[in-house]
Write a structure and sequence with these properties.
Elements lengths: L34 H11 L12 E10 L18 E10 L14 E9 L2 E8 L12 H8 L10 H9 L5 H8 L13 E2 L4 E4 L5 E10 L8 H10 L3 H11 L5 E9 L1 H6 L19 E10 L4 H6 L12 E2 L4 H17 L77 H9 L2 H14 L5 H14 L1 H10 L3
Antiparallel strand pairs: 1-2, 1-9, 2-3, 3-4, 5-7, 6-7, 6-10, 7-8, 8-9
Helix pairs in contact: 2-3, 3-12, 4-10, 11-13, 12-13
Bound molecules: NADPH dihydro-nicotinamide-adenine-dinucleotide phosphate.
């Protein structure tokens, strides 16, 4: 058809034949000057980038955060500046352990990563569908992830590795209980809650800091598969979550989450029964009630999955004035390691890719490197260092954060000392009705299939510490 666009090489040269390679004679051999053929093959070889070491399988969409309640007494962040304020955002959900081609309906934590394109740069909240995590000290982060990935010799996932690690890491009990409960196998990501999980801080216009946790409660309700239902779902399709999320948005059924914060003052943090910065603990709602913030809606599918979901790079290092970090040891490590993962995976200047690029002005002095594909940040090319006499961008002291107190000597403190790892899993276990408990026991029993006795016994002793009925239920499921 005449209105079709001209096919070109990557340098824009028109292509006359995209069906037949250039050969010496009809039967070949091929001629090396057929640059279009070489370009096609070279691009094919480069179509994949390293997949994420964790959270490789993902599903994403664009949307908005709309503020419905005034929380400016806690935070001066422009994203919260007034009721009715709308901020564009992009979400990426994921499983943790599976590779990029893994089936969606797997029992696993779901990543819940959000990037808000605020007026003062990007704010990323890189959370999960669980309010807690398996480990509290970043020293154990790579070890934990190794237990979720493939065995070096068999190249199979190893239940033995998982339970070996968990049974020697009692701080994992809270998260393991959530993972093995109904909510550990959601049907899709519209029907899950999201949690910032870490403790963050909010800073108001007076420079006062409070500690904070973020919650995203699904308006769609919770939906999960039993292990058996998931097996049936995977037998029919490995892409159930992608089909659900993409399909819902495509037909205008936009998923929404109610956004809340919990707030803790510095004084409260000093008398809280646990370390408020321990990511294996929640803050009980009765003591730290949910405060309404707004509504998040996903309403636009990506036009190009690779460019807008695979290239989306989330990092808790991205904070904005009025929102900041806390001493949480896992958060502190993730502030480094997530940005570093993207520098490795996508390249030095990954934040200038369209999906990651802030909608507000960016001015910095980082210079060259691979994929330096953007112009100078400011009009004057003489201003490429700081301080300079050529009107380059400068700091603004109003953005210096207020101090927060720290105490103690520099030391490798034993994070398992004086730490009750069972009281909160017990509260969760007591929330479950009889049916939920039975499914919990059954899920654990199946997940322990083939695990050596010594490891099973060590883990059973931990379940007993949560509640003797928990240990007894799993023993029964194991036929012991
Ligand atoms: P609450 O009764 O006030 O809160 C219970 C929380 O548990 C709600 O957020 C609820 O989420 C969630 N919940 C309900 N059923 C399940 C389930 N089957 N699996 C996982 N979560 C569920 O009690 P507390 O605040 O005192 O917390 C008690 C326990 O609840 C905690 O030890 C923790 O395990 C769990 N929890 C607590 C959260 C918190 O931030 N305080 C957050 C999530 C879980 P929903 O309203 O969406 O159903």
């Amino acid at each position: 058809m005449s209105d079709k666009k001209q096919l070109t090489t990557t340098s824009g040269n028109p292509i006359g034949d995209n069906q037949n390679s250039l050969s010496a004679g009809a039967r070949g051999p091929l001629m090396v000057q057929d640059y279009q053929l070489i370009e096609k093959l070279a691009h094919q070889n480069r179509e994949r980038i390293p997949e994420r070491a964790v959270h490789a399988k993902g599903w994403g969409a664009f949307g908005t955060l709309t503020i419905t309640n005034d929380i400016t007494q806690y935070s001066k962040a422009k994203v919260f500046s007034e009721v009715g304020k709308k901020t564009d955002m992009v979400a990426r959900f994921s499983t943790v352990a599976g590779e990029a081609g893994a089936a969606d309906a797997e029992r696993d934590v779901r990543g819940f990563s959000l990037k808000f394109y605020t007026d003062e740069g990007n704010w990323d909240l890189v959370g999960n569908n669980t309010p807690v995590f398996f480990v509290r000290d970043a020293y154990k982060f790579p070890d934990f992830i190794h237990t979720q990935k493939r065995h070096p010799k068999t190249n199979l996932r190893s239940s033995t590795a998982k339970w070996d690690f968990w049974s020697q890491s009692p701080e994992s009990m809270h998260q393991v209980t959530i993972l093995m409960s109904d909510r550990g196998l959601p049907t899709d990501v519209r029907h899950i809650n999201g949690y910032g999980s870490h403790t963050y801080s909010l800073i108001n216009a007076e420079g006062e800091r409070v500690w904070c946790k973020f919650h995203f409660k699904t308006q769609q309700g919770h939906k999960h598969y039993t292990d058996e239902e998931a097996e049936q779902a995977i037998a029919k399709s490995r892409e159930t979550t992608q089909e659900d999320l993409f399909g819902a948005i495509e037909k205008g059924d936009f998923p929404k989450w109610n956004v809340f914060i919990q707030v803790m003052t510095q004084v409260q943090s000093e008398t809280f029964e646990h370390d408020p910065f321990d990511i294996t603990k929640v803050w009980p709602h009765a003591d730290y009630p949910l405060i309404e913030v707004g509504v998040m809606e996903l309403n636009r599918n990506p036009q190009n999955y690779f460019a807008e979901v695979e290239n989306a790079a989330y990092s808790p290092s991205n904070i904005v004035p009025g929102i900041s970090w806390s001493p949480d040891k896992m958060l502190q490590a993730r502030v480094f390691s997530y940005a570093d993962a993207h520098r490795y995976r996508l390249g030095t200047h990954y934040e200038h890719l369209p999906v990651n690029r802030p909608k507000s002005q960016v001015n910095h002095y980082h210079k060259d490197g691979s994929m330096r594909f953007f112009d100078n940040f400011h009009e004057n090319p003489d201003a490429y260092y700081e301080p300079n006499s050529f009107n380059g961008p400068v700091e603004d002291k109003q953005y210096v954060e207020p101090p927060f107190p720290v105490t103690g000597d520099g030391y490798r403190y034993n994070h398992r000392e004086n730490n009750d790892d069972f009281v909160q899993p017990r509260a969760l276990f007591n929330l479950f009705d009889d049916g939920q408990k039975e499914r919990l026991f059954g899920n654990i029993g199946r997940a322990m299939d083939g695990v050596p006795d010594e490891i099973v016994e060590r883990q059973l002793a931990l379940f007993d510490k949560v509640d003797p009925a928990y240990g007894a239920g799993v023993r029964k499921a194991l036929g012991r």
